[in-house]
Amino acid sequence: MQASETRTAHTPGPWEIDCTSYDLHTDTGETYELLPVTAGADLSSWVGFVFAGDDANAALIAAAPALLAALEAITPDTHGCTAKHTFITDPDCKSCTIAVAAREAIQQARGE
Question: Where are the domains of the chain?
Answer without folding.
Answer: 1-64, 75-112
